[in-house]
Amino acid sequence: MKIFILYMLVSITIHTHSNYHKENIAIRPFHLLLQQQTDSDLQDFQIMQEKYYLKRTPEENAETLFLVYMAADNNLHYFAWNNIKQMATIGSNKNIKIVIQLNEPGAHKKTQRYLIEKNKAILLNQDQVAAGKKFNTGDPQTLIDFCVHAINRFPAKQIILVLWDHGTGYLDPLKAKTSNIHELFELNPTDMMLELNRSHEFMERIDPQGDCRGICFDETYRSYLSNQKLDYALKTICKQINRKFDIIGTDACMMQMVEFGALLQPYTNLMVGSEEVELGAGWNYKHVLRPFEERSLSPRELAQHIVQCYQQTYARITHDYTFSAANLNMLQPLVDNINKVGTILIKCLKQQVNRSAEDTIAQCRSKQMCTCFDEPSYIDLGHFYQNLKEHLNQIKLKDETSLLNELSTEIDKGLQLINQIIFANVTGKNIKKALGLSIYLPEKRIHPSYLQTPFSQCNNWSKLVNEFIHRDVDLLA
Predict the structure, then answer these.
(1) pLDDT tens readout for residues 156-183
(2) N or C: which end of the chain has fewer CB within 10 A?
(3) Are strands 20-24 and 11-15 parallel, antiparallel or unpaired?
(4) C-alpha–C-alpha distance, residues 319 and 433, integer Å
(5) Same domain, 308 and 402
């Protein structure tokens, strides 16, 4: 879930490509956290119907197709048009075609599909809008229709898909729900930076029952894309277009997880996103798309560039940010490694002396020692592995076995794999030890949806989570 700040009358200096200028973080309720263009950037922006524009402007294929699925039928709609106008400052050209689908709140707001040109948004589905069509962004068919139509209409060598909305990691909600959250960030008066207030747990703040997990929330239809829906949509799209995506990015909170990567792996080569919450302004699309004014970028170059743009946007605002790029073609060996580590740790729990194994696991994943995120059941996998490696000597077993040597070997392999998979990673100094991929390891209870996820059903990590949670008392939710 992206986060935005209310009523913060604070001014900061932001560096842009062209100059330095003062910008308000928030000067009225729901104002955009970071206004990333000056008014002059947008003064010529206009919306046009396709029939009046494309007839006089010959179409040409571009190297890259950049798709943005904007699920803004919720409290993020304040940010949607700002991001669209950022895209329009660059616009489609011979190197890139930019196509978006936008849902906004209210039954009267119809689903809109646009080709983004320089300072223009060209409406591509006028007939659907005229017919009063409002589609559900939480319906997989809506995502399928958008992607297949755009890919067939604008053929390209490289296809990028960005899922734009609230995100809450890999777990699925029991009901669709979003929330205004302004308590999570506070201003540090010593350096005028925004900091996460980690005394508030993210999921507990928005939903004390722990049932709000998912991506692409639609409040009109009270729906969202669950793991199963997203898997179905991506599988159908890739089958119809007979190829993978080159990049799937999440302009949403906390989606850069091993489990989510495993879901995406059959359908994309690269994944970009944040392990931590995102501020409401999300990506700066003007910066992301700027290189395409001059040339095409390879998928790897673009993924690295998106990571650097995220740092450029937020390093002057907060110390609590992460963003990384992952090569999912190399993910399966890490998934296998996690399965082995989970299996060995379960054996250690069964053979431990004086709770030494469970205490070591608890210590190594604790907030005090490990990089945890605003949802504390999500921890950085690499940092957890490093902690385990350092504290293996604390684990005492009943029988002398080779378990600890085997565990040490697998941890080393896992760290090497993370380093190979994550080819770009940036962090703020408050979470500087994050290595680019998080994983689910709660302290108190297991969310009901986790044991139903594809990752959980074929990986012993979920069995480790279950053993760890039930070490003292039955806390299964």
Answers:
(1) 999 999 999 877 677 655 444 444 444 5
(2) C
(3) antiparallel
(4) 12
(5) no
